[in-house]
Amino acid sequence: MRPSENFLSEAVRLREEKNSRRSLRIPEGIDFYSNDYLGFARSQAIIGSYQTKIQGLSQLGATGSRLLGGQHSLHQALEERISRLFRSEAALLLSSGYLANLGLIQCLGMDHTLIMDELCHNSMRNGAKLSGSKTLFFRHNDLEHLEKRLRDNPGSLILVESVYSMDGDLSPLTDIVALARTYQAEVVVDEAHAIGVLGPEGKGLVVQENLEAEILARVVTFGKAFGAEGAAILGSSRLKKFLVNFCQSFIYTTGVSLPNLLMLESAFEHFSASPHELKALQANVRYFSQEIGRDLASPIFSWSTPGNAAARAQAVELQAQGFAAYPVLAPTVKQGSERIRLVLHAFNTREEIQTLAQIMRQHA
Question: What is the pLDDT of residues 173-208, one digit of tens each?
């Protein structure tokens, strides 16, 4: 065995000892786990539209970085469509939300102190690390703590999510923007779990609160409600020009492939033409809220089961009853805050939701 493989084996063994080893699995059962909020990933209408579109392709991959021959008219057309859809002056496509957050925060951090909600996604945290900037955290959604940070560090960059991915709660975005104005700060919002979900048109919390002009940058992702992959950074034309010159996760990455661009185009067309899935999703959120006696702000619900062993056992019980639901374990979340992360969808039936709520009540 190579010396390095001793380290690899020992690292995994320690994870097993803590009951926190991750492994890959193919999900089975009723979907209460995925981020396919609207069911677009399995939509036959979208699949059919996509299959028609790709018949006309004469090229598959972008073939390189968009700055070195990988730019295509489809990239430009889709970015213009995304800008119109989400009410932004400009948009820049990247391969994933992780890369978008990583590159955006790394280069914006060159000129800012970063003040971040303590529950922000790993991609935002790593972007902050790569920036080398002074980074401070404020207690989750705690406006008083945020104001204290801003008072000591005016002109900072505030980093938040509109919908937090583990508990499904919303950012008090309007109040955060007001604080940013007071302390000459800027705001960056990760809208990954809000687009396709929040507001009457599913365009995210920023649009719902009419804050488009107040936000320096938004990150919207397409691997969740839109059932595809990729992401875009939304902002001003000036921001886009800056990113094209300084965002390393854009500059040094092969452009999004042409089939994926057409997949996104089909998803956007369906999204704009039919509000049915969004209405069904929001109705299911209201129904589940009634069933469990808790007013949910989003389709994400966190069922607290502290301890890795307890969370795993609870997930196994749910799976035995036909539900695809999985535990979120430490160190992904803090020790003691392990949970089953449940997600509602437009395609979940009332009977499925009712049965799940009944199981939860039995364990209350």
Answer: 999 999 999 999 999 999 999 999 998 899 999 999
* Residue-range domains of the chain with CATH: 28-43+275-362 (3.90.1150.10), 60-273 (3.40.640.10)
pLDDT below 50 — which residues of the chain?
none
Q: How far apart are CA 300 and CA 342, in angstroms?
A: 6
- Over the range 11-24, which residues count as b (16 or more CB within 10 Å of their CB) and which as e? eeeeeeeebbeeee
Instruction: Compute CA 354 distance to the chain's CA centroid, rounded to the nearest angstrom.
Output: 27
Cis peptide before 327 (omega within 30 of 0): no
Q: What is the 3-state secondary structure (H, E, C) of the chain?
A: CCHHHHHHHHHHHHHHHCCCCCCCCCCCCEECCCCCCCCHHHCHHHHHHHHHHHCCCCCCCCCCECCCCCCCHHHHHHHHHHHHHCCCCEEEEECCHHHHHHHHHHHHHHHCCEEEECCCCHHHHHHHHHHCCCEEEECCCCHHHHHHHHHHCCCCEEEEECECCCCCCECCHHHHHHHHHHCCCEEEEECCCCECCCCCCCECHHHHCCCHHHCCEEEEECCCCCCCCCEEEEECHHHHHHHHHHCHHHHCCECCCHHHHHHHHHHHHHHHHCCHHHHHHHHHHHHHHHHHCCCCCCCEEEEECCCHHHHHHHHHHHHHCCEECEEECCCCCCCCCCEEEEECCCCCCHHHHHHHHHHHHHCC
Residue in the structure block whose two tokens are 């084996």:
9
pLDDT on residue 328: 84
Q: Which long-range contacts (CB under 8 A, 24 or more apart) does 319-325 make?
A: 319/28, 319/29, 321/355, 321/359, 322/29, 322/30, 323/29, 323/30, 323/32, 323/356, 323/359, 324/27, 324/28, 324/29, 324/30, 324/31, 324/32, 324/33, 324/34, 325/29, 325/32, 325/33
Instruction: Determine the pLDDT at residue 156.
Output: 98
pLDDT of the residue at 1: 65
The Cβ of residue 180 has, within 10 Å, a number of other Cβ atoms equal to: 22
Residue 271 exposure: Cα atoms within 13 Å on the Cβ side:
27
Note if the pTM is more than 0.90.
yes
